Amino acid sequence: MKLEMTTFYKYQGTGNDFVIIDDREEQFDISNQPLIKKLCDRKFGIGADGLMLLRNKSGFDFEMVYFNSDGRVSSMCGNGGRCIVAFAHFLGVIKEKCHFIAIDGPHDATINQGIVSLQMQNVDKIQQLEEGIFMDTGSPHVVNFLTNNVKEIDLVPEARAIRYNERFEAEGTNVNFAHVEAGEIQARTYERGVEDETLSCGTGVTAIALAAHQQGLLDQSEIAINTSGGQLKVSFTPNEKGYTNIWLTGPATFVFKGEIEV
């Protein structure tokens, strides 16, 4: 088997880290799940929560193709979306604004001095389930609010009990725990596909912010959420159906560039 050198870039958004490849010539084999899993492996590969390809797409500035660290095609990743916008800006594909497409549909975004704001999909269905508040913000999320400090919870076993129960086992769900503190939210997230806690989750903090507003825990239309990897902000417009004009804002940072044989 002939090995070829592939150039990759590492980006992170509040500790959610990604391998990103400029694949505008579509040379990367998206069906090679073991390869994607190996590249994301923190001991035998580059190490990341997910891998993204930036590809050309007619009618858009670019296409975002996202894989979880288990090698499978994933639903939308908010921090990944912000990081690939920063990457597209670095490549010169975009300037300060862009319109791109991901697996959940079109997105608009802006970038200014390393801060990326990403418009998320509208949310018009929020359910109160036995497991917690459930919604889809581009990826499915269960949100639970705690009265005590979220740092004290043994998150992984608690989250896995929900992620692998009868309701969610087949498709999986992300699981979030949070508490409100001084007008802001402290949050932790377990991500399906990674099957562990991550330092941050963009679609997760979006779900947490909307759930906090919908439950009356906070009444402002812009909410700061503190994750283990840093702070993100979520702004939105509530209406009779749910929430529109949802924007996820925070830093997206280049970490390093390298080459690897594949």
Helix and strand arrangement:
Layout: E1 5-13, E2 16-22, H1 33-40, E3 50-55, E4 63-68, H2 78-91, E5 97-102, E6 105-112, E7 115-119, E8 127-129, E9 132-136, E10 140-145, H3 155-163, E11 174-181, E12 184-191, E13 196-198, H4 202-214, E14 222-227, E15 230-238, E16 243-251, E17 253-261
Parallel strand pairs: 2-3, 10-11, 12-14
Antiparallel strand pairs: 1-2, 1-17, 3-4, 5-6, 6-7, 7-16, 8-9, 9-10, 11-12, 12-13, 14-15, 15-16
Can you walk me through this structure?
- The chain has 262 residues and is α+β, with helices and mostly antiparallel strands.
- The chain folds into 2 domains: 5-107 and 252-261, Roll (Diaminopimelate Epimerase, Chain A, domain 1), CATH 3.10.310.10; 127-251, Diaminopimelate Epimerase, Chain A, domain 1 (Roll), CATH 3.10.310.
- The chain is 17% helix and 43% strand.
- The protein has helices spanning 33-40, 78-91, 155-163, 202-214; strands spanning 5-13, 16-22, 50-55, 63-68, 97-102, 105-112, 115-119, 127-129, 132-136, 140-145, 174-181, 184-191, 196-198, 222-227, 230-238, 243-251, 253-261.
- Strands 5, 6, 7, 8, 9, 10, 11, 12, 13, 14, 15 and 16 form a 12-stranded mixed β-sheet that branches.
- β12 and β13 (196-198) form a beta hairpin.
- The chain is globular and about 55 Å long.
- The relative contact order is 0.19.
- The mean pLDDT is 96.
